[in-house]
């Protein structure tokens, strides 16, 4: 997938990081 703007890429990376953190926390609990 190609990113049109830097902002779109930033929001995508933030969402990806959020999901990763959620998964790590989910495994710990």
List the helices and strands and how they pair.
Blueprint: H1 6-28
In short, what is this structure?
The chain is an all-alpha fold and 29 residues long. Helix content is 79%, strand content 0%.
Number of helices: 1
Helix and strand sequence: H
Helical proportion, percent range:
over 70%
Q: What is the 3D form? A: rod-shaped
End-to-end separation: 34 Å
Which class best fits the helix and strand makeup? Answer: mainly alpha
Number-wise, the strands total: 0
Largest sheet: none
* Average pLDDT score: 86
Poorly predicted parts: none
Estimated share of beta-strand residues? under 5%
* Cα Rg: 12 Å
Q: What features would you describe in this structure?
A:
The protein has 29 residues and is mostly helical. The chain has one helix spanning 6-28. The protein starts with 5 loop residues before the first helix and ends with a helix. The model has no long low-confidence stretch (mean pLDDT 86).
